[in-house]
Amino acid sequence: MNMAPAAQEAAADRDLVDSLVDELQERINAGRIPAGTWLRQAPLAEELGVSRTPVREALRRLQAMGTVEVVANRGARVRLPSARDIIEVYELHGLLQGHAGAATATLITSEQLDRLAAAERMFREVVEELRTSGGTADAQQRWHRANTQFHTVIIEASGNKRLAEVVESLHRKVPRNLTWIALGNDIRRLEKDAAEHAAILDAIGRGDGTTARRELINHARRAADLLVRTVDDIGPGSAAQRR
Q1: Global pTM value
Q2: Is residue 196 classed as helix, strand or coil in its secondary structure?
Q3: In this predicted model, what pLDDT tens digit does every residue of 125-179 receive, in sequence order?
Q4: Residue 126 burial by CB count (10 A; 0-12/13-18/19+): exposed, middle or buried?
Q5: Which of 48, 60, 169, 214 is 20 to 30 A from 192 in CA distance terms?
């Protein structure tokens, strides 16, 4: 049975809002819209080629998800996570990734292991580039891609589809680009982070689930400590709170 015109229009509106939420969330996660940025409905609607109504609804959804906050008489702003947010999110993230890593060590396919190794190589390439030439404009995006690919493969190879959904929901609480802000200005931090990924890859490649679990949990804890310090440095009055 065909849908009534009103029902079809309502479904199309929901699909549009869903796509706007996904687009804005991805921009925030990737750092193209930094924490603290004010999200103005009119410019966003013009840029995205839609009316203000679906943009307004998308911002409401992002507020409900904890990605943006609405400030009275000011509008919507990308939310900077608190220290408590980071500690709680990364505690869960470490436990989930550790669980996935233990399973992945015995379940990973050769194709998945190749993708994991490719991501680990990308970390090393970015570090070497930054050490020798100061890096290129896309260093941050390549690091972001490597980090996303590395941890996505671990979740995928664990064989638990629901785990991927839960981990993605956690990323909405703490944008991924904060990791680069925390690491990007210190080559020693980048080298240490790359070494941690190499240790995780080594454990998984050897089929050592116990070590993989431990390395992933410790990796998350160290990241949380670093991000808490970064958020404290950024603070609510920093230049990141762009208008």
Answers
A1: 0.77
A2: helix
A3: 999 988 888 766 788 888 888 998 999 999 999 999 899 889 888 877 787 667 7
A4: buried
A5: 169
